[in-house]
Write a structure and sequence with these properties.
alpha+beta; Ribosomal Protein S8, Chain: A, domain 1; Alpha-Beta Plaits; Structural Genomics Hypothetical 15.5 Kd Protein In mrcA-pckA Intergenic Region, Chain A; 3 domains; four-stranded antiparallel sheet; 7 helices; RqcP2_RBD; S4_RNA-bd; Nucleotide-bd_a/b_plait_sf; RNA-binding
Length: 263
């Protein structure tokens, strides 16, 4: 396997090179030995690249990409032998649940992640962290779940207790939005970002070129990239929006758009 050639063909930049090579190493070992393998958790961009590489260059390899539930962002790549299928192996994931959160505590993702990393774990061993009104869910590997359950006693200034649950019992995040409406000359990424994030188009254009924006979790470096309904735009330091609906055009031939902003 020419890993450098694969990386050159698929990676947009060198930022993810080390992580990508680790995944290619797993694929190479799997191809040689035909034994069950799985990766650490991958961010959405790397998960997408893995899927593309396997479908285009190694279409004979059986694989699954999962984060434990349908809407998961961070996922693992599972490679399984040709004598097996998805029904013959157990997903190596569990969910840690913490449901004794005091009302009004307002714990956030950073609080939870900091508490777990403070136990000595690495980020790649953790999947999504789901914070709902009354509970926290942390997706991780089966072999790490017991360690977290036994050692996490505090998040922020609050005492907590955790327990392990089956991955099938994950409760997806309840997202809240505000709706933003506006008009744009085109559905370019810089135009929609300017309206949705309330920044100047010049700043949006500059930050796109500085790799601060992603569309559907994938890096986009071109301000003129055309969006479509349902596209998710994430802007480092500014949150996320969805181009929800294109409502037609005005008399001045501008697009009327409805944008959902995560809160």
């Amino acid at each position: 396997m020419d890993k450098k050639d694969i990386a050159r063909r698929y990676l947009l930049n060198d930022k993810f090179e080390i992580e990508f090579f680790k995944v290619l190493d797993k694929i190479e070992i799997f191809i040689k030995k035909n034994v069950f393998k799985y990766t650490d958790f991958l961010d959405p961009y790397l998960a997408f690249l893995c899927s593309e590489v396997l479908k285009t260059k190694f279409d004979y390899v059986n694989f699954d990409i999962t984060g434990g539930y349908k809407e998961a962002e961070r996922k693992i790549l599972i490679l399984y032998p040709d004598y097996c299928d998805e029904a013959c192996f157990n997903t190596p994931l569990k969910v840690i649940k913490i449901d004794n959160i005091p009302q009004g505590s307002k714990l956030n993702h950073r609080d939870v992640l900091g508490a777990i990393l403070g136990l000595g774990l690495k980020r790649e061993k953790l999947g999504d962290i789901i914070i709902n009104d009354n509970d926290i869910q942390i997706i991780t590997f089966q072999e790490i779940a017991s360690f977290i359950e036994s050692n996490i006693y505090q998040i922020g200034r609050y005492r907590v207790s955790a327990y392990i649950d089956d991955i099938d019992n994950v409760i997806p995040r309840k997202n809240s939005f505000i709706t933003i409406t506006g008009t744009v000359k085109s559905l370019r990424l810089d135009s929609i970002s300017s309206v949705g994030f309330k920044v100047s188009r010049t700043k949006a254009m500059s930050d796109i070129k500085r790799e601060k924006l992603k569309v559907n979790f994938l890096p986009v470096l071109t301000p003129s990239y055309n969006l479509k309904e349902g596209d998710l735009i994430s802007y480092r330091g500014n949150g996320r929006i969805i181009l929800d609906k294109v409502l037609g055009k005005t008399k001045k031939d501008r697009y009327k758009v409805s944008i959902k902003k995560f809160i």
